[in-house]
Design a protein that fits this description.
The protein folds into 2 domains: 1-136, Alpha-Beta Barrel (TIM Barrel); 143-245, Divalent-metal-dependent TIM barrel enzymes (TIM Barrel, Alpha-Beta Barrel), CATH 3.20.20. Helix content is 40%, strand content 13%. It has 8 helices and 8 strands; from the N terminus they run αβαβαβαβααβββαβα. Strands 1-2-3-4-5-8 form a 6-stranded parallel beta sheet.
Amino acid sequence: MWRASKVSAAQAEQTRAARAKLDVGPLVIHTSYLVNVCSQTEEVRQKSIIAFRGEIERALALGAEYLVLHPGSYRGMTRQQGLALAAESIAQAIDGLPWQDTTFHILIENTAGAEFSLGGSFDQVAELIERLRPHAPVGACLDTCHTHVAGYDLVSETGYQETMRQIAQTLGAETVRVWHCNDAKAARGSKLDRHEHIGQGTIGIEPFRRLLNNPEFIHAAFIAETPVDAPSDEERNVHALLALL
């Protein structure tokens, strides 16, 4: 829903205390999927700006390090118009918020590359980040399923190396603060965003082994966004990833 409840001071303190006790970090929050900062519909865009500002306020209250954002759909415009509108909307949403003494970053997530979906290539993510750098701390979140179905090769060893080279060339490995680790139900280049359990999809297990042991991403957090078909699935997927280290 567009209106989310506010985080009370007591809730924020409870979260901070639990994080310290359990040694959880970084804390990564995902923005509501309703938010579309490059919508050509002014009502939707204005609601998105307000909603995204609320997301940031809650993230700051909870002491989160990262807030992940899907840039949205630019249907009805050119891609360049969409990029400009997304940057303008985000700049409005973050204007005046107090994060100077925090480690907080907004992370732009790459998408599956569907038509009119902003962020379907590393170039688009990099361009939006560059537009936002004067306004706020910003970085990237890359999703393995999105990367794969957008057409990048993570599966073959030579393709994986080429994809890593493109990430380094466009974004810089240091800009990638979070990886969403998801196998894919659909084929590479299909543009279909369908997550699968680790090692059971069209990506397979070896690309995750390469990624998790890549020293260029020693600073990054890795999060499973895999399906939950049974109560134990989240734990099983996390252990599948841990076993690759």
